[in-house]
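W.,

You were right to be curious about this one. When I first looked at the sequence I had no strong expectations either way, so I just let the prediction run and decided to look at it fresh. Below is the sequence, 79 residues in total, followed by the output.
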Amino acid sequence: MGIGSWIGILIACIVVAIIIGVIIGFKVSGKIYKKQMRENPPITEEQIKQMYTQMGRKPSEAQIKQIMNNFKRKINEKN
């Protein structure tokens, strides 16, 4: 085998390693993102209360829990 063959093999290995790295990076970042969304939801119960108050309504605890459960369900559906 000549030097050209070795260079071709080296380039092929580098390309395969990059592709594998991108796939692994994508999967790991997706899992980290989902974990963060479960631990730190984008909206809190206090924010829901404030939105209802701004609309001139007084929310019940059942309404607040229902909205929070909807958010949690949506996040879990994406898993």
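Here's what jumped out at me. Residues 3-39 form the longest helix (37 residues). And, maybe more interesting for your project: The mean pLDDT is 89.

Coffee later to discuss?

I.
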